[in-house]
Amino acid sequence: xxxxxxxxxxxxxxxxxxxGLVTVGAALVAVTTRQLVHAALWLVVALGGIAVEYLLLTxxxxxxxQVLIYVGSxxxxxxxxxxxxxxxxxxxxxxxxxxxxxxxxxxxxxxxxLVTLVVDAFRTAWIExxxxxxxxxxxGEALFRHWVLPFEALSLLLLxxxxxxxxxxxxxxxxxxxxxxxxxxxxxxEARKAQDAQAQDAQDAxxxxxxxxxxxxxxxxxx
Amino acid sequence: MHLVYPAVLAALxxxxxxxGVLARRNAVxxxxxxxxxxNAVNLNLVAFDVWLRDTxxxxxxxxxxxxxxxxxxxxxxxxxxxxxxxxxAGSHIDALRDLAERPxxxxxxxxxQPGAGAAASGTGAARPGQQAEATA
Lengths: 223, 136
What we know:
The structure holds two protein chains of two kinds. Helix content of chain A is about 70%, strand content about 0%. Chain A is mainly alpha-helical. Chain A is globular. In chain B, helix 1 packs antiparallel against helix 2. Chain B has helices at about 5-25, 25-50, 60-90, 110, 115-120, 120-135. Chain B is an all-alpha fold.
């Protein structure tokens, strides 16, 4: 079988190319925009484009899992994270760090290397899309016949990760919920402890008459 | 379909994600870029699985596993970002330099940010103060 050329693309290839352009454009906007919420929303477009690419590759189960988990929950989690860290709504000038040129150089070098390598390696490889490769039945049979043990281990990992996330993000107060401590509320106990320590030092110094230097005596007397 | 189309698309998406990871300051935006890189790998896995016609469906199964691991990763990552934001009042990753190696004689992080150590133990240390204020 002679390999088909690039100059006569099939309909699937044209749709794949257009969707790929949309995906790459949305990903570019998502990593370069200065509006934080817009980055998460452009990520939805990029992930949806990848889901369409899965559909074009006849992997429909993975496509719907992508829509459900990525577009449905991961982006919502990201939006919650943006809101809980009080991300500014408008343009934030400090969204990018100072090493942007280095990052651009690294990304361009990586893209050039990878694209050159991939095109050189798989120029003549051809995917036959005559029958679906990833419908729910075949993927489910493979998953629960050959990959049961990794699947169960992964469910345990997901449980552990989510319990860990709850434990990490919980406010650690012994009795009842408390708000985020204000700066003065944080500083006050430290100063109080320091004053207590200095008062203790002063008492020790009074009890021991030989010690003459009492650094915290004025504060202790002030109290 | 040529295999080159999904492979090149995955390479471009990976590079875009790499740029985002290196160039962004906000931790949530870094997580967004990491998601792009993971999706590039997933696209490669699915494309090569369909190309090879694997009878075990190893590529698509691994894609599903990667999606689940990415969900776990984003949960843990956002919890850590929230904790950092709560303790440091900011989610800029280039401000987190407490573990940076410094040349000898340079001021440490305690001289940089005097409130950092107090804020790190803030949630535990705030309770006695509040109780003392309540009893006073």
